[in-house]
Amino acid sequence: MNEENKEELDKIRHSCAHLLASAVLELWPGTHNAIGPAIENGFYQDFDMGDTKITEEDLPRIEEKMREILKTWDTFEINEVSVEQARKDFTHNPYKLELIEEFAQGGKTITETKQGAFLDLCKGGHVHHAKDECKYFKLLSLAGAYWRGDEKNKMLTRIYGTAFKTKQELDDYLRMVEETKKRDHKKLGRELELFWFDETAPGMAYWLPKGLILYNTLYDFARNMYKKYGYQEVATPIINKKELYETSGHWEHYRSDMFVSPMSFLTDESSALLEGSEVFGIKPMNCPNAMKLFTFKTRSYHDLPLRLAETSPLHRFELSGTLNGLFRIRQFRQDDAHIFISPELVQSEFENLMRMIDEMYAPFGITYRLRFGTRPEKALGEAKDWEFTEKILGEVLEKSGKEFVESPGEGAFYGPKVDILMKDSLGREWQTGTVQLDVQQPKRFNLAYIDASGKEQMPFVFHRAILGSFERFLGILTEHYAGKFPVWLSPVQVALLPIADRHNDYAKKVLEELNNAGIRTELNDRQGTLQAKIREATLQKVPYMGIMGDKEIAESAISIRSREGEDIGKLSLPQFLQKLRKDIDKKA
């Protein structure tokens, strides 16, 4: 979507957010509307509804009121007003009054928008003819949201919706939403017995036996890539003194996203009151520890590139209102690595990373593009350092022929970055891995290596996580495959289904041989009909079912059926193993 189309769509969605606010205020007088922006794929509006509780069953009623009001709406009227007038107009809405005071203190112009009898505080960005341009909308869901995303503030009711220019676009999107609900990884995680979440550990997954097999299979895949591309694995402390993060710059730039002891809610000022106490942080990323590892001994140019990979658990203090299954989580691991190089190796190492990205994404049948983030407003270091690193990454991206988009100001605080944006089977785009080039942390940690002339030089560092968080990546894969993982990833690759009790001994022998061959196999020898067993294995999305009865025993064979219902036919055990090995080796 080009910028012009995006701007036009944002105007439709923002206008629909106003329409939603107008409808809710008419249906429930006394409600306060807070904010209602256009967002990716739609819009939302936040409400303080007092003691009123609404559910998703109320959404059709709200939609009906919105369509009724829309018939009377046309052009939005925008007026610049004084602070006093704005206060008067919104005297009963504390959320608008808070915004008005902020605008006043910041010297910002205050504008109001009026459509029919509905008045709101807004800077603009609406359609020209609402009743013609805002016809194709749909309310989708409800959620709780803290005012301004702060847990200390009141929980508001957030209503999500979407809107498009045409009915066809809306219908296509709603079909995708329904398909997404079927593929919801949180739902599939329970049904397939992969993982679950409990309120005693918000934002942290319990991995069940099958889920841990899936997790470890992905982890082993990443570790094999480490070996192929010359990485050494390390492990570093999970808890570190705050001084480490002060040196790296994370204490200043990332403190609010960290778990900090003695108590996670302490501010810097209050922690200083704890006489004799030391403040520790649970690490949210591995890079400060990687810098420390480099200082373990004197390094030479012969040691470079030094590629250190680490998958220790990381913890980030995500707000409870933002947690979302495996997609937004507080405890996770990632295929993290830090590559220490001399300046002349930057380009070749980045090209090497691009090849590694291709190889690691190929088995999943997923396409991706790249996003190039440059110097943010709050950045460490001098402009010349950023110009140099941005120039190198930009040139390699241009030469690579890969699709990428520039994102000014979206780099890490210590260096430019290249994010991986992968597209799943529903056409949704996800940010997964990232590659960042850093000269700031090496400076702050006084890192040095001895060059060929015997002089000390500062190394450059690539931070890179290609798959990114294993948890997030597996959440994406669960929805991408709708739980039908390819054979090499599937927690159970074969389900053996004896037809009757007299076939169980044969099935147990096959089970032993498959397990000895490294095939993840389960035997369903419980009482029940064959059809019931087939249905259970199909619902568990097991790639292959091995059915065994009198004929199969007589022929020393297994009748193979796929989870799609395909009858593959009778195969001997060696033939079936050959087929399985082929699928696994091909990552099919």
List keywords for this structure.
588 residues; alpha+beta; BirA Bifunctional Protein, domain 2; Threonyl-tRNA Synthetase, Chain A, domain 2; Rossmann fold; 31 strands; five-stranded antiparallel β-sheet; globular
What is the CATH topology descriptor of the largest domain? BirA Bifunctional Protein, domain 2
Please give the domain count. 3
- Gyration radius (Cα, Å) is 28 Å
Uncertain segments of ≥5 residues (pLDDT<50)?
Answer: 270-275
What's the total count of β strands? 31
Broad shape: globular
CATH superfamily of the largest domain: Bira Bifunctional Protein, Domain 2
Structural class: alpha+beta
Mean pLDDT: 92
Largest sheet: 8 strands, mixed
Q: In which order are the strands of the major sheet placed?
A: 11-16-19-26-23-22-20-21
* Helix run count: 20
The CATH class assignment of the largest domain is Alpha Beta
Range of helix content: 25-40%
Question: What is the architecture of the largest domain at the second tier of CATH?
Answer: 2-Layer Sandwich
Q: What portion of residues belong to β-strands?
A: 15-25%
Distance between the termini: 33 Å
